[in-house]
Amino acid sequence: MLNERRKVDLECKPLIQLNSAEFWKATITLSVSSFFIFASLHMVQPLLPLFSKEFGVSPTTASLAVSLVTLTLSISLVIFGILSDTFGRKNIMSMGLMASSILSITIFFVPDFSTLLILRALQGIFLASLPAVALAYIGEEYDKAAIGLAIGIYISGNSLGGMGGRIVSGFISDHWGWQYSFLFIGAVGIISFFLFLFYLPSCKNFKQRPFSIRTLLHSFDHYKNPILRLAFYIGGILLFIFIGSFNYLGYHLHKAPFNLSTTVIGLIYISYLSGTFSSTLSGRLDNRLNSSERILLGFAVILVGLILMIIPNLIMIFLGLLIFVFGFFFAHSAASSWVSHYALSSKASASGLYLLTYYIGGSFGSTSLGFIYEPFGWMGVSFVTIFMVLIGLGIGTKMYFIEKRINAKNTENATQ
């Protein structure tokens, strides 16, 4: 009995405790790396009007620079999640950081829009490595009490990256050309790669598993779980609204009566700071509000922001953006926590499937809303996204009653 207990102690090493030195070391490192990933993913949105002008393509065609990278990223998420089971979480994330950095630098030299799209699609494959594995790393290496805050801070890195990428690309493209935006972001990625190697703690509770096609196919079994499936739907709806709105907001502000430059359009994305705050707040509220309650609150806030953004006034649009971004990251953090809490096994593949649906939704919203924008303008985009919010509220309500029932059952079992 004593030998068995010692064996368990050796196999199950201490988890990262909330607010410990190791907690902040790991969490900040993951957040810095996610900054680069999401800066690379979203940096092209202020550049879409420039692509239309330089390459002579429509807004819908220009949006492929966003939708293709999110599509290939979504497809790669599950694959990298499975590969990380064999080759290790940190190894997969490190490889993805380096490859995506090199591809960003290569885009600096592209001769035409078709080549740019090909390289962006390839970049999306490797950008998937960190988001596919980071949540699994947190789920395995962190104590349960630390998971909610860690995810919130990690998603804050996402929001800062999305904001920073857009602001930097807008400023650089106005002064030196859009190509230099990719060169700069690629250099940031290489720096992030080396910081990641030296400062992310190695996995202590990772258990290597051999790669097999059967394992890959079994990872989709999470879709059979109706509780997890609801969170997957929420993720897809959230990014459909988010990417689609940001894609065509740039065109809206680039035209009369606003006639804003790319630099000014990029600066409007400082609204992402509200998302940095809200995702962390959502994580801190994990022990006070159920995940479903935070999802509903997030969608309600998104709805207010979208309504304000319809008003043709820059101050109201910016205020609406602040509210919109706050609600998005608040709900996204809560949906991510839902998956971590209710995936009883194979957390990596569960997180991968959540992000798969999440990015497929973003890819679809990126281009499909272009067919709405071209004939109906910003008002048409607004009406479609508001309709999607209402669907999200309906799903979130269903999640609320499911979670209420689960908590009541757990309380009943605890008292017996």
Write a compact overview of the structure shown.
This protein has 416 residues and is mostly helical.
Written description of the protein model:
By secondary structure, this protein is mainly alpha-helical. It has helices at 2-11, 21-42, 48-55, 59-62, 64-87, 89-107, 113-127, 129-141, 144-175, 178-199, 213-218, 226-254, 262-268, 272-284, 291-310, 314-342, 347-415. The chain has a single domain (17-201, 215-415), classed as Up-down Bundle (Growth Hormone, Chain: A). The chain is built from 17 helices and no strands. Helices cover 82% and strands 0% of the residues. Residues 1-12 have low confidence and may be disordered.
Helix content: over 70%
CATH superfamily: MFS general substrate transporter like domains
Q: What is the helix/strand order?
A: HHHHHHHHHHHHHHHHH
Number of helices: 17
Count of structural domains: 1
Which CATH architecture? Answer: Up-down Bundle
Q: Please outline the major beta sheet.
A: none
Q: Please, what is the oligomeric state?
A: single chain
CATH class: Mainly Alpha
**Protein structure class:** mainly alpha
Overall radius of gyration: 21 Å
For the record, give the distance between the C-alpha atoms at the N and C termini, rounded to a whole number. 29 Å
Label the overall shape: globular
Low-confidence sequence ranges: 1-12
Mean pLDDT reading: 87
Q: Please report the total strand number as a whole number.
A: 0
Give the DSSP E fraction (strand runs of 2 or more residues).
under 5%
CATH topology: Growth Hormone, Chain: A
